[in-house]
Amino acid sequence: MSTHTQKRSWAEPYKMKMVELLHMTTKAQRVKAIKAAGFNTFQLKSEDVYIDLLTDSGTSAMSDRQWAGLITGDEAYAGSRNFYHLEAAVRQFYGYRHVIPTHQGRGAENILSKVMIKPGDVIPGNMYFTTTRLHQELAGGIFADIIIDEAHDPANLHPFKGNVDMNKLDALVKKHGARKIPYVSIATNVNMAGGQPISLENLRELRAYTRERGIQIIHDMTRVAENAYFIQQREPGYGDMSIRDIVKAICDCTDGATMSAKKDALVNIGGFLALNDLDLFEEARSLVVVYEGLDTYGGLAGRDMEAIAIGIAESVDDLHQHARVGQVEYLGQKMMDFGIPIVKPVGGHGVFLDASAFLPHLSQDEFPAQTLASEIYIDSGVRTMERGIVSAGRDAQGRNYYPRLELVRFTIPRRVYTQAHMDVVAESTAAVWEKRNRIKGLKMVYEPKYLRFFQARFEKLG
Ligand SMILES: *Cc1c(COP(=O)(O)O)cnc(C)c1O
Fold first, then answer.
1. pLDDT tops 80 at residue 1
2. Chain centre to alpha carbon of residue 172
């Protein structure tokens, strides 16, 4: 056999230096645990979880360089050296001029919404995100979804389901006038669509359109490097460009950004607000002191800012992103091989089960995705989460949102689990798939006022 015709495998561009032992449970223990948690995986104790795919937020493994960086933390109240490292990294890799650290992404969203949104303003975005939309609404704004229709169809194979529908945006501008639209909120690798990218072509069209009308673009850049990977793989003309350069090109199309460094940037806590406009920056800088802390630490320790600065550089590495997204694609392919309905194409940070197709006998008011997440936990101790009607919450009038996507999210932490863990996850899901016809839904028995998916409680129907 000639070697050059053989399939060549790829492997992770790192090796393990330390391991964390996992905790195994029995099925009886898991049934007890999920009941005590009100059938909400957010309410489980981490000790009762075997493989934790609840979120990729703050769950990544830091590198030895990041851990070494922690020790160089300069814990001065003001002007910490690590702040200047963070500021330099943001300028170098993302190109934004002014940086304000925050404790995490929503801290940046709070300040941004307060300085940019007036009551009655409309904020178009490529699909909502839970905390982003809530901060827009708390500031008196109204969110308007302008993502392409394909994004709401889990079976549609569009390569850039994060794209903006320019006609939807234009209709909003004609209806409300550009003065009522302070900015367009653009997420890269759209979380709620299943980790789906936006193309550079679409972003450039949006840039030209908004520049003409004096509308800014604010970038929810939590997963910008994963988006850049998809552009490199899928968008004509970018196959030879590095992820590092594509990330920069994306940021260059926008005026500022909110960042949850707990995702792409490979840290356990942190975020920032970045703005190119000096006046807006000065307003935000005076506000950060009220909510987060002085503008050179924003709720973070010096060591946290150092870990972010190093993590940003590691996140734009081509080999890193290949392994990161490659592992997600590996799990997605396994699910498809079992015939399990998932959102396609497989996204950047996780595999999303189509719960409506998985449990077609349940109505959306019986919480199919919430139900499936609890069934998978009972089967194997794998923790996933709901992204459907519970996450969507209620509008300002108190009416339930009924999202078209009813999904269970298997989010993969970066650099944490192995391929064997992915096999266990897929096989557990297949076991639940086998008995899907016998699965009963849930009813909600406790609903908190804000972001209900975190704390809501349920009971089994029937
Ligand atoms: C996580 C996330 C946020 C909020 O960031 P936190 O660090 O969790 O506060 C905002 N937007 C998107 C797309 C996210 O995934």
1. no
2. 26
Six-digit token string for 267:
């840290």
Specify the ligand 1 atom closest to the Cα of 192.
13
Confidence of residue 9 (pLDDT cuts 50, 70, 90): confident
What end-to-end distance do the CA atoms of the chain give, in Å?
Answer: 60
pLDDT at 154 over 90: no
pLDDT band of residue 140 (cuts 50, 70, 90) is very high
- Atom 13 in ligand 1: residue holding the nearest Cα: 191
Share of the chain above pLDDT 70, in %: 99
**Cα–ligand 1 centroid distance for 106 (angstroms):** 6
Q: Does domain 64-315 have CATH number 1.10.3720.10?
A: no
49 pLDDT exceeds 70? yes
Tokens read off for 405: 């996507």
User: Tokens 């840290």 map to which residue?
Assistant: 267
| Separation of alpha carbons 316 and 134, rounded Å | 30
- Kind of pairing, strands 382-383 and 51-52? parallel
Band the pLDDT of 75: cuts 50, 70, 90: very high
pLDDT in the model for residue 257? 98
CA atoms within 13 A on the CB side of 230: 28
Number of other residues whose CB lies within 10 A of the CB of residue 433: 17
3-class secondary structure per residue, 347-413 = CCCEEEEEHHHHCCCCCHHHCHHHHHHHHHHHHHCEECEEECHHHHCECCCCCECCCCCCEEEEECC
The answer to whether the beta carbons of residues 225 and 321 sit under 8 Å apart is: yes
The third-level CATH classification (topology) of the domain covering 27-49+318-460 is Aspartate Aminotransferase, domain 1 (3.90.1150)
CA 266 – ligand 1 centroid, Å: 14
- The candidate with the shortest Cα–Cα distance to 293, out of 76, 102, 84, 75, is 102
Q: How far is the CA of 178 from the centre of ligand 1 (A)?
A: 27
| pLDDT for the residue 4 | 63
Beta bridge partners of 342: 353
